[in-house]
Design brief:
Largest sheet: 2 strands, antiparallel
Number of strands: 2
Radius of gyration: 22 Å
Bound molecules: zinc ion
Distance between the termini: 60 Å
Strand content: 5-15%
Strand order of the largest sheet: 1-2
Shape: globular
Helix content: 40-55%
Structural class: mainly alpha
Length: 166
């Protein structure tokens, strides 16, 4: 059975890398170079800004008042779904405050969203959004720019920053 020599199954003992604790320089550096994390930050700051911009407005799709809704039901709702429309994922014309019923249960309630969006920003800008079908790969530098831009706008306007990402 000599051919089995050297075939010892090596235990998969990948060294356990402990993530540095939050708010340490090391952790911040790690996060700053983590594209997924920066993308989450960009999204969190941008969505918080959309909610602040549209505060007091009714749902972008159904038009119902949202003032009685708890925070988690007041959502940043994309007109063209963000997943398949990467080029306009962070475009302020493409994202408006909407209720969770429209955003989640009616998948954006797109036909009603369109009617109200045309009233809000005009047909020309809506049609421009609809023409932006190209796939866009966001670089980490671009994501940092988006994050920083909306973070600055939130701070400037005294809006509390999203937890976990500030
Ligand atoms: Zn709605």
């Amino acid at each position: 059975m000599s051919y089995l020599k050297g075939l010892e199954i090596k235990k998969r003992t990948a060294p356990y890398r402990e993530k540095p604790k939050r708010n340490t320089k090391e952790r911040r550096e790690l996060n700053e170079n983590d594209k997924k994390f920066v993308a989450k930050q960009a999204k969190a700051f941008f969505h918080r800004w959309v909610k602040w911009r549209d505060r007091g407005l009714p749902c972008c799709a159904c038009g119902e008042s949202m003032s009685h809704l708890p925070e988690h039901m007041r959502q940043a709702s994309h007109y063209r779904p963000s997943k398949n429309n990467s080029a306009i994922r962070y475009h302020p014309d493409n994202v408006h405050l909407g209720c969770s019923y429209c955003n989640e249960h009616l998948a954006g309630n797109e036909s009603n969203y369109r009617i109200r969006l045309v009233q809000k920003i005009g047909l020309e800008r809506v049609e421009w959004l609809e023409s932006q079908r190209q796939v866009k790969k966001w670089s980490i530098e671009e994501l940092r720019e988006i994050r920083d831009k909306y973070k600055a706008l939130l701070i400037e306007n005294g809006v509390p920053l999203p937890r976990n990402y500030n």
